[in-house]
Amino acid sequence: QVQLVESGGGLVQTGGSLRLSCAASGRAFTIYSMGWFRQPPGKDREFVAAITWNSGRTSNADSVKGRFTISRDNAKNTVYLQMNSLRADDTAVYYCAAATTGFYGLGSLPSRSNYDYWGQGTQVTVSS
Question: Residues 62, 67, 73, 79: is their CA dihedral positive or negative?
Answer without folding.
Answer: negative
